[in-house]
């Protein structure tokens, strides 16, 4: 695939967007930014273009500009106050989505709306259909859970369903934050509508067993088959390398996620067993007839009780900080891989167009000697049509390749930041736990020594 | 199978004091008789302990000597104490539990079978851990056998026992085969009768306040210790599982670190290194809790049972005494076999009084030993927990310092 672009078609875009990016209020959407584009989605994404011949340069400039836009990135979203609406199997949870921002694309500084889970899924579905084929990494929505939700619907107010709702609430919040962090998605009218408008049409097609749901499943299967049959001539080592890296990352993150989930489970178990031991030690202390030893054993019981609470808190941190982050990234990487697949599909389409063009040319050549003037004309028209399609296909492939490079760059930057921040926070939680342990045992030691 | 000489293990003797490793018992050892287990060998299905004695007593041919003994011979010695009428008034030091490497062996075997499915590093790591676990179990069983011998050696009466001296000195196999099926069945029935009896005897209210109190106390205490022992075991197992998880996390982070194309690679490698170290500390915490807490509770579970057995024997003697009294009264009333009844009554009375006298002292000593052992172990437990928490904290803080500095 050639790296050359059709200069005429893109020059206009070039100027427009570079100038838009250079202004500090890059995040503001002004009228000039919106320009009709023949192959873009309905809402105009903010495309960054630069010298394509030097990919490194591309990123350098983008990083700076994105850094700027990040500094002015002023939007806070919180998902809170889960409320159950209705009862029985038709019940559902409604969440409050509060957006606080100073960005001008929003109509107010502070907007509060009520949304249910299927609304989030609907939003994701729309964004995916608009942007994925262009190579944008659309953050995946949280997963459905029939089991978890059924418990909530049935009205069990027990610990596991409370935890489930909290887990989901947190996941929805992270999903929205990731979505608006993407400079293009932030400006998407569906996103704005989701965050701002009080009424939202019900997203019925997100239900698994709806017509749309079944269509989705069929398409997924078809995609999987196609993936196996497309053998792409990868002329760009960058893509091959990146795909390999993401495959490796996928494997390792899944492994890590499984180990962390196991750790959470064992820590929770440890907490329960420590509490149980504490009670037992207290009883032992009660039955001990040597006064000082009895008191020391009661103290030991108290220490162990505090430690059990410590383990519980740590398990929570393990979970909410690390485990959920890993889960999010496993899903994100699936989205990244999806985007690479889209590029393959685009390439295949382009190849198909070229094959078609070749056929049309051959057909025309044959007709040259057949003396059928109107058929010949038709053949010539078709050739022109397919030449256009080939050009379009090449442009699409260029575009998606460029988009993916940029998206991957942004994704990796985010990934580095996310992991750094979270791991440091996690280590700080471990530090706190150890400090508390020291406090508890230091208080106990003199009690033990006092046994006489 | 693994042949483990104590001298090969790097850790083994460095952390615990040399000499009588009486972990759970605070004993006065004197120069007249010192016993310890100086070496041990683990073979396929048995452990061979080298029992080493230093003594100035005239009973022994030499001042210092060693013999090799197996677990069954310890049991033989213990049972000979239990079965002897002479020692009915003493708390018989509880027998050491059978060395049990089955679980550990199974794990090592499973590891060998699964060798193909993991990387070389993972395999070596897991093998090292399992070997460490094996070694830990080994250390424990040696300690428990040693404590038994030390308790006997420290007891003013039991230390003079002939069987004990034979055990210590006779340098050939004692040929005490394990009990055959018939004997084991007999033991079982004896225990059933004893516990039924125990209930009967325990029901008899004691005139003596001291023993009445001890009875009530021991019954409740024994049950509570049993419960605490089981719960502490479970707690420690969870702790070990969590440490294992951290181990796996460290390995995966290492792989991530070597594969990552971004700045995160250094980050991951550093955190992986950190978790490797903290995991070792967590494993040590679990091991120390096992040694200082779980083993302590297990030991006093067995000792409190031995104390209960003593009370049972005294109660039995009391019942016999009271029955002999009644028989004497009856004989006197009928004026038949009075002399015989008198003799029986005298014998029973003497037996009962002898047991009562020594039992009282034994129970007082038991309390002293118990308090001392708990004090020692709880203090050591707290000190070790502190040491490990501080170590962990330092590792975490220094790593955080490096990671934050890099940003």
TrEMBL record, chain B:
GO molecular function: phosphatidylinositol binding
Keyword Transcription: no
InterPro entries documented for this protein: AH/BAR_dom_sf, BAR_SNX6, PX_dom, PX_dom_sf, SNX5/SNX6/SNX32, Vps5_C
Signal peptide span: none
Transmembrane segments: none
Chain positions covered by the region annotation Disordered: 1-22
GO cellular component terms attached to this protein's record: cytosol; endosome
Pfam families for the chain: PX, Vps5
Keyword Transport: yes
One GO BP: intracellular protein transport
Residue intervals of the PX domain: 27-174
Biased composition (Acidic residues): 1-14
The entry's keywords: Protein transport, Transport
Stored SUPFAM superfamilies: BAR/IMD domain-like, PX domain
Record's function text: Involved in several stages of intracellular trafficking.
Family: Belongs to the sorting nexin family.
Name listed for the protein in its UniProt record: Sorting nexin
